[in-house]
Automatic annotation (TrEMBL):
GO MF term list: hydrolase activity
InterPro entries, per database record: Calcineurin-like_PHP (IPR004843), Metallo-depent_PP-like (IPR029052)
Annotated ranges, domain Calcineurin-like phosphoesterase: 90-194
Region (Disordered): 288-331
Protein name, entry field: Calcineurin-like phosphoesterase domain-containing protein
SUPFAM superfamilies hit by this protein: Metallo-dependent phosphatases (SSF56300)
Matching Pfam families: Metallophos
Length: 443
């Protein structure tokens, strides 16, 4: 993305982009080490659910608990979600992945944090992926596991890899599968049956209420394995919560999928993360609040997943045309209620206030952003969610928009944002050039 001499950088807004690749094309990716790690993780959940205590003890998994054991954080994961980490020598931010592992790796390679064999080479750098690993692509689970495995490698070198929770992660845990490809449904069927077969399905069902089991039984067959795995409290939903957070602060920079408002800061960043994780794990925490303070928390658009600025659902539907077959599988059961702040177009996962084109510093959105950052005591915000034609900043550099529509579904570019604790900011373009912040500032 080249800048013409003497001309300011355009906002590169892509709100009208339509997924270019038709749903339904199934891509097979054979990664034996990854498959073995998934097999171990899958059977670990089976052993715990079925109460095979000799095996569980041998693997230090503990006795069968009153609640599904996998709803507790995985080994090595703190019971309280990570919300704040110290400033790092170098921070790399990458945008929405949408099931495209190849594009994700291309971004990380541009920033120099993985080598040609996709292994960690970033030293003590910190990587933040801003959410929406799921939907629109066929490599969702592979991308999810890759990020989590890369985090382990990064930690050994003094670095870290964090991923945020986006609206598509929340939609899937909420049973909304409108943006899942046929390959995305098949990935759950194929991998679960290969890894653990019927026992895995029985273990997944152990967490579901009778109403939920009946609801899933009525779904089209391609949807069932995904619905079981991603129900609140089921293993894949808990895996999302293990290393995924709603909001993350690294040094003086706030990372969130869509955006935050002053009301969210007042509610508490740690509280936002804790209540989101509790909902995904189907566990209760002390005095969770389902009521919003005075904030526009719910509306029909946000609850349905179609905020006014969001592209409409794809028309090529792999599982049918009725509401249930279109993926509107949202559960109305006795499961713990989704927190209020995950609903509505003003929520952290749905906001687009800071991602619209041409935001002058005196605009209402920039004033809202400044109020939010001032209340949080932070310098800048990094968001995804709304595709741009390239990473760019607005509001005088106070917000960086990093969703470039990199996935094959959108056909955008692969880019990465680079931040330093002294305030320097760079963009790694898809051509391999390292651009100064001013070259990507919306004027």
């Amino acid at each position: 993305m080249r800048r013409s001499a003497g001309r300011p950088f355009s906002p590169l807004f892509m709100s009208s982009i339509w997924p270019r690749r038709p749903a339904g094309r199934l891509v097979h990716h054979l990664d034996v080490p990854l498959l073995m790690r998934q097999w171990t993780w899958a059977w670990r959940g089976v052993w715990r659910a079925l109460g095979w205590t000799p095996l569980a003890l041998a693997l230090s998994l503990g006795e069968r608990a009153a609640v599904p054991p996998w709803s507790a954080p995985a080994p090595g994961v703190s019971a309280s979600p990570i919300t704040r980490v110290p400033a790092a020598a170098r921070v790399i931010a990458v945008g929405d992945v949408h099931g495209d592992l190849t594009a994700l790796r291309r971004c990380l390679r541009l920033a120099g944090v993985i080598d040609d064999e996709d292994r960690w080479s970033g030293g003590d750098a910190v990587v933040v992926q801003v959410g929406d690993v799921l939907d629109r692509g066929d490599q969702e689970r592979a991308a999810l596991h890759y990020l989590d495995d890369l985090h382990g490698s990064a930690q050994q070198a003094g670095g870290a890899v964090y991923r945020l929770l986006g609206n598509h992660e929340v939609m899937n845990v909420d049973g909304d599968f409108r943006y899942v490809t046929a390959g995305g449904f098949a990935e759950f069927q194929r991998r679960d049956r290969e890894l653990a077969g019927t026992a895995m399905r029985q273990a997944y069902r152990a967490v579901l209420s009778p109403q939920e089991r009946e609801h899933i039984r009525r779904m089209p067959r391609p949807m069932r394995d995904r619905a079981i795995a991603l129900a609140p409290g089921a293993p894949t939903a808990c895996k999302l919560a293990d290393r995924g957070v709603l909001v993350l602060v690294v040094g003086d920079t706030l990372f969130v999928h869509g955006g935050l408002r002053p009301e969210h800061i007042a509610y508490g960043l740690e509280r936002l993360n804790a209540e989101t994780a509790a909902w995904m794990r189907r566990v209760r925490i002390d005095e969770p609040s389902k009521e919003a303070p005075s904030v526009q928390a719910t509306d029909a658009a946000g609850e349905s997943g179609n905020s006014p600025a969001m592209p409409p659902p794809a028309t090529d539907d792999p599982v049918g045309t009725s509401p249930i077959k279109r993926g509107r599988a949202r559960r109305r059961t006795d499961a713990l209620e989704k927190p209020w702040f995950l609903r509505g177009s003003g929520s952290p996962i749905w906001m687009r206030h800071y991602s619209t084109p041409y935001l002058p510093p005196d605009s209402e959105a920039c004033q809202l952003l400044n109020d939010t950052l001032r209340q949080a005591g932070l310098q800048r915000m990094v968001v995804g969610h709304t595709p741009q034609r390239g990473i760019n900043s607005a509001c005088g550099g106070r917000v960086w928009r990093v969703d470039t529509g990199m996935s094959a579904a959108y056909g955008g570019v692969s880019e990465a944002l680079e931040l330093y604790p002294d305030g320097r900011v760079y963009v790694w373009s898809d051509t391999g050039r390292r651009l100064e912040a001013d070259e990507r500032s919306v004027k």
